[in-house]
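task queued by scheduler; priority normal; single chain, no ligands, no partner chains; default sampling; output format set to structure tokens
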Amino acid sequence: MGRYITGDIERKLWFAVQNSNAADRFGVTGYEPAYLEYKFEQEDLEKVQEELKIIEDLIEENNIKKLNEFFEKVNGYNDQIMIEHNILDIWNKYKVDYADYLLGKDIERCIIETGQCYFNAEI
């Protein structure tokens, strides 16, 4: 069963990797009915970009590039496929941060394009 984010951002949270409250990391805390609601405003953009920079420094640009290239090529993944593409160690070390990074990039893009970003994350 998957959990989804709906609203200005439509995406699936990474199964067994990403918590429903992953967007808390970017400076706005969701509140909890049956889902977390997030509303990022233009003034939150700086905090989002600061956290993205922290994640970029942690994972490193080259590793982000390798992960991006891998996920652009494959539609599913497991350890064996990742071994074949020589990224399993990177994935095991940074999978939560990478999943959150992609969410943060979606939040950043949404704020830049619309001035705000509102979405719900299923719990």
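post-processing summary
- Helices lie at 45-59, 61-73, 79-84, 88-114.
- The first strand starts at residue 4 and ends at 7.
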